[in-house]
Amino acid sequence: MTRSTTAYITLLAALLLAGSCKMPQPATTPVVKSLPDSFPTGAPASADTAAIASISWRHFFTDPQLVSLIDSALHNNPDLWIAQERIRIAQAQLAMKRAALLPSVNGGISAAADRYGDYTMNGVGNYDTNLSSNINKDQRIPTSPTWDYFIGFRSSWELDIWGKLKDEKRAAAALLLATEKGRQYGVTAIVAEVATHYYRLLALDNELAVLQKNIVLQQAALEVVKVQKEAGRATELAVHQFKAQLLHTQALQYATQQAIITEQAALNLLAGRYPQDIARDTTFFKQELPGALQTGVPASMLTRRPDIQQAELELVAAKANVSAARKAFLPSLNITPYLGLNAFSANLLFDGGSVAAGALAGLTTPIFAQNKLKAGHAIATAEQNQALYRYQQTLLQGFTEVVTQLHQVRNRRAAFALKQQEVAELTDAVSTVNDLYLTGYANYLELITAQKGVLEAELSLADERRQVLEGVISLYRALGGGWDENRH
Q: Which domain of life is it from (predicted)?
């Protein structure tokens, strides 16, 4: 090969090497919309406002039976067990990325046999060596076949000269933290869900008591109408109307009993146990949650939410993966040393002269894998944008949930106060129309209508109370409450 040809090949190789080392330009990422300075609730929030989210759930809920039920769910819920295993997987993945920064060392024992042709470099070289007068009998190479024995250690180490492996480790660390935040978000969900089902169960207990009370009253009214019919003061139609009303209320009683069974089953499932009776305080209207719903500043309060923290950490991991994908275009430096015993005869393997050592350092760069690397970079960039959009979506969702639940609680509390007045008025109306009916100044339809109205109002009152409690719980969760770092 002439000198000019060698120079041409060297120049071509240098051009290919330089061209392959060009990294793609950083992609432009979308801008995240900043959170408003305050929640639109009518009054500006201050930075030191105490929010309900800072209250531990053990103090937020004052019912000891509910606290015990939540504690049982947090220790036995299968979803939280699964989340814990996800954390273990993420920990193992981080350990793998950390190990990639260190040399790998493998111990090995190998034996190989080759038969070289007479007209090969090894064949001719072995033949000439065996004819040499400078070697002794132990140094003669066996012929047909030639054995190669090795016992020792081989290592491989990629030096992270550009920080690619560090970026991959940083991504794995962020994903581990994100997984832990995912479990925390699961805890807040369990706390809120258990409390919600618990208060629904209490509302159903109250509804059942209302129905049973009205059944007694309607049965008494039916007996009065029957007596009046016998005396000629009422018709058979009146008897049918009162009986139909009683049957309707009895049917509602069975439907409510089934709803109670369903709610208990849901609570037991959350607590990770088979169906059983739920111990509970049936004084539904005495249940209280924090009355002053202070929310704080959105930027500080919403970032307490584990799902927002999780989305932010996933974005950090995605950015690190993009950085690693860009650095994959650069050359990598690998060192592969070995140390051991090497001989062509088994009986000479443990001789002192069989000690062998060596090392190879190589700088490699991708040349014909550009399309693959570009595709990997495009995927990482798209995943980064997805993570950013999820982060933005979680912020929007969190802010919207807080605003919605604030109005929900305030409006439901106002509706509950009006419902209380409505029930009081209708209860007085039933008493009045009952007296008028017995004295003949009101007909049976007016009495039936009054009884139906008070029944519906009492059921609606319990439902309003339930929605107030559920709204406070939802607001507590929306602000990031329900996660107690000292206990879970």
A: Bacteria
The answer to the question of residue 242 being in a domain is no
Q: The domain spanning residue 447 has which CATH number?
A: 1.20.1600.10
Is the bond into 145 cis (omega within 30 degrees of 0)? yes
Instruction: Pull the structure tokens for residue 143.
Output: 């012929």
Q: How far is CA 50 from CA 242, 295, 318, 376, in A?
A: 55, 7, 34, 47
Count CB atoms within 10 A of the CB of residue 13: 11
Tally of structural domains, the chain: 1
Nearest alpha-carbon partner for 57 in 184, 169, 242, 211: 184
- What is the extent of the structural domain holding 301? 25-101+162-198+267-273+285-330+371-478
Q: Which residues contact 58 (CB under 8 A, 6 or more apart)?
A: 67, 484, 487
**Of residues 287, 262, 294, 266, the one with CA closest to residue 466:** 287
Is pLDDT of 11 > 60? Answer: no
Q: What local confidence, expressed as pLDDT, does residue 151 receive?
A: 95
Helices then strands, each counted (H, E), the chain: 11, 6
Interval 187-227: pLDDT, tens: 999 999 999 999 999 999 999 999 999 999 889 888 888 88
Calculate the alpha carbon distances from 43 to 38, 39, 46, 408, 410 in Å: 9, 8, 10, 17, 14
Going from the C-alpha of 145 to that of each of 121, 130, 136, 242, the distances in angstroms are 15, 14, 20, 109
Alpha carbon separation from 309 to 11, 304, 305 (Å, rounded): 52, 7, 6
CA distances from 424 to 159, 206, 430, 433 (A): 81, 17, 10, 14
Backbone angles phi, psi at 140, to 5 degrees: -75, 135
Is 52 inside a domain boundary? yes
Nearest to 342 by CA among 329, 357, 330: 357
**pTM of the complete model:** 0.81
Q: What pLDDT digit, counting tens, does each position of 258-297 carry?
A: 999 999 999 999 999 999 999 998 787 777 776 666 555 6
H helix intervals, 328-369: none
Contacts for 312 with CB less than 8 Å, ≥ 6 apart = 391
Residues 273 and 262: their CA atoms lie apart, in Å, by: 14
- In this structure, the dihedral spanned by the alpha carbons of residues 27, 30, 35 and 40, taken in order and rounded to 10 degrees, is 180
Q: Virtual CA dihedral for 234, 240, 243, 245, nearest 10 degrees?
A: -100
Q: Contact at 8 Å (CB) between 447 and 158?
A: no
Q: What is the dihedral of CA 205, 211, 215, 216, to 10 degrees?
A: 50
For the chain, the residue count is 488
Q: Which of 190, 403, 398, 409 is nearest to 305 (CA)?
A: 398
How far, in Å, CA of 250 to CA of 242, rounded?
A: 12
